[in-house]
Design a protein that fits this description.
Elements: H1 6-10, H2 12-58, H3 62-89, H4 94-104, H5 112-121, H6 130-146, H7 158-178, H8 182-191, E1 203-207, E2 213-215, E3 219-228, E4 233-240, E5 243-251, E6 253-254, E7 260-267, H9 268-271, E8 275-281, E9 284-285, E10 289-294, E11 309-313, E12 332-336, E13 340-346, E14 353-360, H10 365-375, H11 379-393, E15 396-397, E16 406-411, E17 417-424, E18 430-440, E19 446-449, E20 458-461, E21 466-474, E22 480-489, E23 497-503, E24 519-527, E25 544-553, E26 564-565, E27 569-573, H12 576-617, H13 623-643, H14 650-663, H15 670-687, H16 689-708, H17 715-776, H18 790-823, H19 829-840, H20 842-845, H21 847-859, H22 863-884, H23 888-924, H24 929-960, H25 967-981, H26 994-1057, H27 1062-1089, H28 1094-1113, H29 1127-1163, H30 1173-1180, H31 1193-1216, H32 1225-1255
Helix pairs in contact: 2-3, 2-6, 2-7, 2-8, 4-5, 5-6, 10-11, 12-13, 12-14, 12-15, 12-17, 13-16, 14-15, 15-16, 16-17, 17-18, 17-22, 18-19, 18-21, 19-22, 21-22, 23-24, 23-26, 24-25, 25-26, 26-27, 26-29, 27-28, 28-29, 28-31, 29-31, 31-32
Length: 1262
């Protein structure tokens, strides 16, 4: 730029404007350079990429690649010249730049260009002053500074060219990297056209070098790994003497490691000469390998038999001949486990080695056995088996003979598989002879146990329970050896042990092998009282253990072979509370199931009724009726299944409960009696009405299906079948309702008793835990929390948490009792009274405090005090249970009393019916129609009232007994109403007597049924009473036997030392007191429990008298009677006399109980049958169940025995003292006693005979 004038030079804005324009011009030049670079690289790269792609696709020749390279270089040079030349040639001037900026921003128009012009020309416009020029420059600079033109004035397409070239370069780079190594090879072949750069293959082959020498009998294994692009198949080419011999196609497989492999085998015997092998896969090929083929060694015959020859020696326990007969040349063998095999062979040349190889059928068998033994803790057995397994599975060397041509090996196979004898010569050529060997193991016996008693995974039994278990054991091969019982326990219960109760020796006494027992069935009685805990103590409530039946065979090959065993049966020892809890839960479960059955029965009845209405209403469309019948039929099947004796049925569950009660010898239990009655009634329903319903529905369904198939509909027969079915279904529904009504009153009490029992059992268990904790670590008891170890603290915390849970459960029980007492105050006075008495009991009132004290004492580690508090809490819950417990005898007494009242009311109803009938007959004879009508209306109203009373009485009867009682009474009421509503008239004007006769007849039947119920109830009471007496007398007899043994012990001491010591004399005094106390208890039983049984009372009285005599005779003076007389002289005979009387009484009592039980069974089938006229008359006259029964045969037999015994004693005394005047005082007293007994026996006989003449039916006593 030229020099400026002084004014311009002195202006700072002029200089700044000049520098600004210079910088913008430089920026434009830089942008232009970069645009040229970008465009050149874009064009050059595009052309080079095209050449590389042509090479990749066409694989061009070298000269063509050179031509392309030269063309690309020439094109790049030309592009460089084209794009870079305008940068210098076409640069903008400052004035051009100013004009361009004015075009961008209108505010700069006519100012910037003029200012630049002044600056470039260094002169002002003509006529303009220097000041104006400076001002124009200043204004232009200011406008430029505020104008936004700096980033808009640049070379065009710079950014676009950069973006396009950058995207193109990135895309080419990604393509280049993605197609490596092919893209790199293509680029190198273009840049170096005359270099011998080979293209890479898509597939790569890594072939495993095969064996260079093989025998003609071998197969050559070919293996290779395939990488890159994996084809599905590969080709194996075999060349012989330069020519193609064969081509094999092999599949390429991918192994578990995701590696593609090619494996194959070449049959060398098919080629027979040297050959080469090469693999082709995809576009790749492997290196060819040369294989040399030689002749292999050969097995020679031994004595004309193919070798190796086989000798098999079976184990002795199998009883098979030794050696077994093996056919020469056999390659398949079946041998018992434990057999010893001998392989002997001969080769045609000297051998380098021989070996025995084994390939098991199941490779996981031996590792699985070893692993299971380790997991079961049998480490020693696992190590032994592991070493044996290694010996068999690994290759075993076969010793060679002196010439190295023969060999022999003896071994015992333990698993089935392929056993191969391999011989190998000096050239590493081999021959193989394989044997398919099946080792037949003797499996463990199959043992099954009948576990039908198991209801919830385990059995709950009393410590003295006796359980009859059925076991079956089977061993099909070589027979059973022993059958036994194995049991294991938890915590302090029985240790794991076993005992055999059946054995079968392998040899008899003559050394001959016994015939095997392959199948065995045994009924084994398990007596729990004969078993003990691991510490020698008897079982107690809370103990748990498991048992199973086991059996083993004669197998002596596998000493570690497990026994065959049944499933484990877990047994929990409980007390009566545990069993009662189980019974109450079973009762509630049965009630819930009956509710479901009732709902199903209702739906089935509804479906049958709908089908019957459809049949009667429509003539042709029977589809809905058929669907309803099928639905009803399915519903009845569901009812049968739910009620049936299968495992899922109610009867099946009740049968298990019954067997469990028998195993526990449970006798008096209200819940059990209720369940037995329930089972009996369900059985009646199932075998009676329910079976007939299914028959009728099946018949109706078949007829409807035949009609639907176009065979015609017999409408009357279908309707008749449905009507019969509907009537029976209604009966079933009614009976189910009756069963539910009978169970409903007990539901609330049963639930509370169940809760009380569970709480009691948990409290007792908690008490045992506290005591066990104290015994295990007595030093920790009483310590403060900071003095306890972490483990001790954890135990205390766990006990406190459990105690809190038990206390909460007890509180819930008390809350439920209070709520139940308020809700049932008016409904069930007896239950409410029992609950109130339980809540008012002092032990129950203190229950909360005792539980709270136990928790606080446990938390403060005072376990001894906590155990005492828990004991008091146990007493409180036991008191609740005692108050809520049902007394079967009291229940039966109440039932008998109510039934007598009902019988009396029924007799009154009968009398009332007869009176109303007479009045009705008299009214019919009235001639005045109005009076006749009024009398009949009054009579009808009274009959209607009587029918209502009969229906109410029927409901009462249904509630009183768990049976379908009251049915005849309901029918009688219906007949009575029928007679009132529609009295049919005879021609002579008199009504037909059918309805009234039927009503009276059914009422009479109901009276007879009630009489039978009273009789059965009283017999049950009598039987329960006698069973209770029998239990008491059994205890008395056991105590008397103990005293008798004590007498023998005293005599033994006297015989040993010749005299009793002072201490022994004092013991005799205590013995006498014990004997006298036992006499008092015996007489108490007679006076308290034997009222109305005079013969029984007399017998017990005689036993008590003998006991008193023994007690009196056993008294000894410590000063004068130290040397005798011995107890056997007078005391022991008196004791034996007492035992004899007790034994007589017990036998008679058993017979009496059996007679009562058989009488009850005889009455069961006849309870619904019509009575004979004579019996009905007798019952009508007031006889029946309320009358006293005739004396039992048992009492008569006992009286006869007493008389015979009295005769024998009198005869002995008369023989000993023929002259009565010379009798000693003792004999005289005995004679007087005999006379007294004779008078009493005579009086007893007169009483029985008088009773028989007055009450017994004719012919009862002969």
């Amino acid at each position: 730029m030229t020099l400026l004038t002084k004014e311009i030079e002195a202006s700072p804005d002029a200089e700044r404007l000049q520098r600004l324009m210079s910088s913008i011009l430089l920026q434009n030049k830089v942008y232009g350079f970069f645009r040229a670079v970008f465009l050149w690289s874009l064009i050059s790269g595009f052309v080079l990429t095209g050449i590389v792609l042509l090479e990749y696709q066409l694989h061009m020749e070298s000269w063509l690649r050179a031509f392309c390279l030269i063309s690309w270089l020439a094109l790049s040079t030309f592009a460089f010249m084209v794009f870079f030349k305008p940068i210098n040639r076409c640069s903008l001037t400052a004035t051009q730049l100013a004009l361009q900026m004015e075009g961008i921003d209108p505010r700069l128009k006519d100012s910037l260009a003029s200012a630049i012009h002044f600056l470039e020309k260094n002169q002002s416009i003509e006529g303009a002053s220097a000041e104006l020029v400076v001002k124009a420059i200043t204004d232009a600079f200011d406008k430029v500074m505020i104008a936004d033109v700096f980033f808009k004035v640049h070379v065009r397409f710079v950014g676009l060219s950069f973006l396009v070239s950058g995207i193109f370069s990135l895309a080419m780079l990604l393509v280049f990297l993605g197609y490596m190594p092919f893209s790199g090879v293509a680029l190198a072949r273009v840049i170096f056209p005359y270099e011998n750069i080979a293209w890479p293959t898509l597939t790569q082959i890594e072939m495993v070098a095969p064996k260079p020498k093989v025998g003609k009998n071998e197969t050559l294994r070919i293996a290779a790994r395939i990488k890159g692009k994996i084809p599905q198949q590969a080709t194996v080419l075999l060349h012989c003497d330069g020519a193609l011999h064969s081509k094999l196609i092999a599949d390429i497989q991918t192994n578990e490691e995701n590696v593609s492999e090619l494996t194959g085998r070449v049959d060398v015997s098919a080629i027979g000469r040297d050959f080469s092998v090469q693999i082709f896969a995809g576009d790749a090929s492997s290196i060819p390998y040369q294989i040399t083929v030689l002749a292999p060694p050969v097995f020679l015959d031994i004595n004309g038999n193919p070798s190796p020859t086989v000798t098999c020696l079976p184990p002795f326990y199998t009883g098979l001949p030794s050696p077994l007969n093996v056919s020469p040349g056999t390659l398949q063998l079946d041998v018992p486990l434990g057999s010893n095999l001998v392989f002997k062979g001969l080769a045609d040349r000297a051998l380098k080695s021989a070996r025995l190889e084994f390939q098991p059928e199941n490779k996981d068998v031996l590792p699985g056995i070893v692993g299971s033994l380790f997991s079961a803790g049998e480490h020693w057995a696992a190590l032994v088996l592991l070493s044996t397994a290694k010996t068999v599975v690994s290759e075993t060397a076969i010793p060679l003979d002196r010439l190295s041509t023969g060999f022999e090996i003896s071994f015992a196979p333990i698993a089935s598989g392929i056993y191969s004898v391999v011989i190998e010569d000096e050239s590493d050529l081999y021959a193989i002879r394989s044997f398919d060997l099946q080792v037949r193991t003797d499996p463990s016996p199959l043992v099954k146990m009948d576990s039908s008693l198991v209801n919830s995974g385990f059995l709950q039994l009393f410590p003295e329970a006796e359980l009859l278990l059925k076991v079956s054991a089977d061993d099909a091969l070589y027979g059973l050896n022993t059958v036994g019982l194995e049991f294991k326990g938890a915590q302090n219960s029985v240790k794991a042990s076993s005992s055999n109760f059946w054995s079968q020796p392998l040899l008899d006494k003559n050394g001959a092998r016994n015939k095997p027992v392959n199948s065995l069935g045994i009924d084994h009685l398990v007596r729990l009282k004969d078993w003990k805990n691991s510490d020698g103590s008897s079982f107690k409530a809370g103990d748990r253990f498991s048992l199973r039946f086991v059996a083993n065979d004669h197998d002596d090959v596998l000493p570690l072979k497990p026994k065959g065993g049944s499933d484990w049966l877990e047994i929990q020892i409980v007390d009566r509370n545990g069993i009662e809890l189980l019974l109450e839960k079973a009762q509630e479960k049965a009630r819930q199931e009956l509710l479901k059955v009732r709902d199903i029965q209702r739906k089935a009845t509804k479906d049958t009724n709908f089908a019957l209405n459809e049949i009667k209403a429509k003539e042709e469309d029977i589809q809905k009726a058929m669907e309803a019948v099928q639905s009803a039929e399915q519903g009845q099947k569901n009812v049968s299944e739910r009620l049936g004796e299968k495992e899922a049925g109610i009867l099946g569950d009740l049968e298990k409960i019954k067997k469990l009660a028998e195993a526990n010898k449970l006798k008096a239990s209200a819940s059990l009696n209720r369940l037995n009655e329930l089972a009996k009634e369900i059985k009646k329903i199932e075998e009676g009405d329910l079976a007939q319903v299914e028959v009728q529905l099946s018949e109706a369904s078949k007829r409807l299906e035949s009609a639907d198939a176009g065979k015609g509909l017999d409408k009357e027969k279908v309707a008749a079948a449905l009507e019969k079915s509907l009537k029976k279904q209604q009966e079933v529904e009614k009976k189910l309702e009756g069963l539910l009504k009978n169970l409903e009153p007990w539901a609330g009490l049963t639930e509370m008793r169940a809760d009380a029992r569970e709480t009691l059992l948990e409290l007792e268990e908690m008490k045992r835990k506290v005591e066990d904790t104290q015994k295990q670590d007595p030093s920790a008891s009483g310590k403060k929390a900071d003095e306890l170890t972490p483990m001790q603290k954890e135990k205390i915390e766990n006990l406190s948490l459990q105690q809190n849970k038990v206390a909460q459960k007890a509180q819930n029980l008390l809350d439920k009792m209070n709520k139940s007492m308020q809700e049932n105050k008016r409904q069930d006075e007896s239950a409410t009274k029992n609950i109130k008495e339980a809540l008012d009991s002092p032990d129950v009132k203190d229950l909360k405090n005792n539980l709270r004290s136990a928790k606080e004492e446990i938390e403060s580690n005072r376990l001894m005090e906590a155990s005492k508090s828990q004991a008091k809490a146990v007493e409180g819950v036991q008191e609740i249970l005692n108050k809520l417990e049902e007394n079967p005898r009291e229940m039966n007494q109440k039932l008998a009393k109510k039934l007598r009242e009902v019988q009396k009311q029924l007799e009154e109803m009968k009398q009332e019916m007869q009176t109303l009938r007479k009045k009705r007959d008299e009214a019919q004879k009235i001639k005045n129609e109005e009076q006749k009508k009024d009398s009949l209306a009054k009579n009808n109203a009274e009959m209607e009232k009587l029918a209502s009373k009969m229906e109410e009485m029927a409901k009462t009867l249904s509630r009183l007994k768990n049976e379908n009682e009251g049915g005849n009474l309901e029918d009688s009421a219906k007949e009575l109403r029928r007679a009132v509503q529609n009295p049919p008239q005879e021609p002579d004007g008199n009504p037909k007597p059918n309805s009234l006769d039927k009503a009276e007849e059914k009422l009479q039947r109901e009276i007879q049924d009630v009489q039978q119920l009273v009789k059965e109830t009283e017999e049950n009471l009598q039987r329960e009473r006698l069973e209770k007496i029998a239990e008491s007398l059994k205890l008395l007899s056991d105590r008397q036997e103990s005293l008798l043994k004590e007498s023998d012990r005293f005599d033994l001491l006297l015989n040993e030392k010749g005299a009793w010591t002072r201490a022994q004399i004092l013991s005799l005094t205590g013995f006498s007191r014990s004997q006298n106390g036992l006499a008092e208890e015996t007489e108490l039983v007679a006076s308290r429990d034997l009222d109305g049984l005079p013969v029984f009372m007399k017998t017990i009285g005689m036993a008590g008298r003998s006991m008193r005599d023994a007690a009196k005779l056993a008294e000894r003076n410590p000063r004068t009677q130290t040397k005798g007389p011995p107890m056997s002289e007078k005391v022991v005979p008196a004791q034996k006399e007492a035992l004899k009387r007790l034994g007589q009484f017990q036998n008679a009592l058993k017979e009496e109980i059996s007679q009562l039980a058989s009488a009850g069974k005889e009455n069961e089938p006849e309870e619904k049958q019509e009575k004979k006229p004579d019996e009905a008359k007798q019952n009508q006259s007031g006889g029946g169940a309320q009358d006293r029964k005739p004396p039992s045969i048992a009492q008569l037999k006992l009286l006869r025995n007493l008389q015979a015994d009295l005769y024998d004693r009198t005869e002995q005394l008369s023989t000993k003292f023929p002259d009565s005047k010379k009798m000693p005082e003792d004999a005289r007293r005995e004679m007087l006693q005999l006379q007294k007994d004779q008078r009493e026996i005579g009086e007893l006989l007169e009483i029985l005979l008088e009773f028989n003449q007055r009450n017994a039916p004719q012919g009862v006593l002969q």
